[in-house]
Amino acid sequence: MLALRSHLAATLASRTVAPQVCSSFATGPRQNDGTFYEFRTYSLKPSKMNEFLENFKKNVHLRTAHSELIGYWSVEFGGRINKVFHIWKYDNFAHRTAVRKALAEDKEWQEQFLVPNLALIDKQESEITYLVPWCKLEKPPKEGVYELATFQMKPGGPALWGDAFKRAINAHVDRGYTRLVGVFHTEYGSLNRVHVLWWNESADSRAAGRHQSHEDPRVVAAGKLFH
Length: 227
Hints:
The protein is an alpha+beta fold.
């Protein structure tokens, strides 16, 4: 599990279940419109973490002038630290292509943020995801603790595991200790991967709620969906 601190008023945690199967393309049911969300992860040099975040805070307006930023977090605990994670929304692939072209031509963005930060980054990763058909993106009510739970599902997509997984997600939500922000299914990147983004009022309320939820048979049954 990773815990992340949001740099647009949040904190995020992440955990990964089961081994990964990597591919450049994945198929499966998704929402009807073309909107998708790009998950971008940057691994940073430890001594340069604060410098990168300060540069981002100062210049983020240059990037958000081109497309919508859903959130921007750094890892607080769990897994590899010194890492930032952000989600960008696009109307379709043509929209993303246009945005990337505009950024390449944006001298202010290039000179003030991109070029100075390239030397601070060790590794970059990108995944294209869709919201699962039964989920809408929700906005948390206030600042709190975020968790990104990542699951490696059996092949077949939401048509295979969607209903059971939805019941397991609702089992957590129904207990009231957490709030669902979004459930994302990968299209480009690692095959059969699902990211669940949660908001919690505090880390302690999250821990207590998860302890109770593990006694719920719907949550236990969801474990059968993983490799």
